[in-house]
């Protein structure tokens, strides 16, 4: 998901890095040939050989380094499902912060050297420019939410029976005191907020159709996380976040005046 800022493309949510990193986490070295082919057929398509090689290294360097570091610091249970509290600090560092930093630094280097210009449109000229900061946020959010989702989808594709185990884990995390009415109320509020956000702005729109409603999503999702558990809410939060960011133009007003 991207937008235009001062005539330049700025990514708001960047998922390719999370997908490549998830493939490395799941398949290890065996994923590299598939990653190379996938990048050549998508992001590097239409580029010169030099630019295509630059794109490959742009993705492979942070993913291989972070995958290797994660395996060193988590040698035994590195492939367990996301949601393990003990592994959370390692995953936040090796699967979100560090790959985003390395990817952004390589983007800045490519910006100065003029390599793979299609990809480096996401960065700014200076490391602390508005475009660079927005890109850094897009990379971190993409890795934070995209890696668990991509990893989960890979496990299902590899072994469809993983769904059974996942459902059992979700049930264990749900508060046993929860009643059906609470689930219905939570889902209804979430759908209502999404409806207000995704409704196109017009002259009759109120403040609830703007980014004001976006701030109300966090307590609703926090409510769901506390009552229904991390595993359930992580599957809901990522698609919601993707939809909200992708359709950002529907709740961000051109001028700050509301009815």
TrEMBL record:
Domain MASE1 intervals: 4-256
Annotated compartments: Cell membrane
Residues that span the membrane, as ranges: 12-41, 53-73, 93-113, 133-154, 181-201, 207-225, 232-249
Coiled-coil ranges (or none): none
Membrane topology of the entry: Multi-pass membrane protein
Record Pfam families: MASE1
Protein keywords: Cell membrane, Membrane, Transmembrane, Transmembrane helix
Gene Ontology CC annotations of this record: plasma membrane
This protein's record includes keyword Transferase: no
Primary location group: membrane
InterPro entries linked to this entry: MASE1
Record carries keyword rRNA processing: no
Protein's name according to its UniProt entry: Sensor domain-containing phosphodiesterase
Species this protein is from: Klebsiella variicola
Biological classification of the source: Bacteria, Pseudomonadati, Pseudomonadota, Gammaproteobacteria, Enterobacterales
